[in-house]
Amino acid sequence: MMRAGEARRERRCVDGVLLLDKPAGLSSNAALQRVKRLYAAEKAGHTGTLDPLATGLLPICLGDATKFAQALLGSGKRYVATIRFGSATATGDAEGAIVESGPVDFDEGQLRAALRQFVGVLRQQPPRYAALKFAGRNYYEYAREGIEIPRAPREVTIDALALVDWAPPLATIEVACGKGTYIRVLAEDIARALGSCAHLAALRRTAAGPFNIREAANLETLEGLELPERDALLLPVDSPLADLPDLVVDAASARALFHGQLPLAGARADGPCRGYDPEGRFLGLVEVAGDRLRALRLVRASSAPDK
């Protein structure tokens, strides 16, 4: 439970990334609001929605870190999913009513062979119950009203797909995938390839970009800590960009970036970088373009190098 007085605490400027192990039954936004309240943070945002049914890694950015959350939205993810073959639901997961039944007459070898078909670049039709928008409304709003809308297939990438356990009719699989992949739909498509139907019985996100569930804290742990102890769990503002190369610039170039100028980049390959000043202070996301350096997203002005 929240400690006495925390609900009345004034909001503060706190920067960093919390790796949260989201529990089942809680929406990503509800989890975000709990964390924001626990940290008394002025600004917070998550980095990729997990369905209420799902558990696992939900990186939450606080303060300046929200400026770099987009890097995680587009990063690779890893999941452990449990598929229940033989029944399909309206929502594609265990929360929906069963709408179809089918045989489960394939063996482990056939299942493994089917999984191999789904590694690579695929065309995937988003589910009816999704947070995507059509004509200004969420897909799931139309679905709840029984209205069919066009759902154009999208290109997704499955980097790896492995069978962890097979205890018919349940299969546990591990999935490494790219942005925009719906594991619910993947489960349905795998079942279809086997002449069956299925729904997602459970889902746990184990990694997102450079982050792993092993470093995550749960809400119960956070609620039992004092504020300084919670702050100690925060990763640095630049951690969402860990997959990018770093670039240290001189003091004059650092000041120029904060003034909207384009200092010389030196002999660097084109592309985005993590920018730092000579003292190792993080400046933000910068880009080398030809012989010039430009700012993409910088930390707030109060964190800027002295003029």
Structure description:
- This protein is α+β, with helices and mostly antiparallel strands and 307 residues long.
- The chain folds into 3 domains: 6-73 and 210-237, Pseudouridine synthase; 77-208, Pseudouridine synthase; 244-303, Roll (Archaeosine Trna-guanine Transglycosylase, Chain: A, domain 4), CATH 2.30.130.
- Helices cover 19% and strands 33% of the residues.
- The chain is built from 8 helices and 17 strands.
- The protein has helices at residues 28-38, 70-73, 108-116, 139-144, 183-193, 219-223, 227-231, 251-258; strands at 16-22, 44-46, 55-62, 77-85, 87-89, 98-101, 120-124, 133-134, 137-138, 154-167, 170-177, 198-208, 211-212, 246-248, 271-276, 282-289, 292-298.
- Strands 1, 2, 3, 4, 7, 10, 11, 12 and 13 form a 9-stranded mixed β-sheet that branches. Strands 14-15-16-17 form a 4-stranded mixed β-sheet, covered by helices on one side.
- It is globular, with a radius of gyration of 22 Å.
- The relative contact order is 0.17.
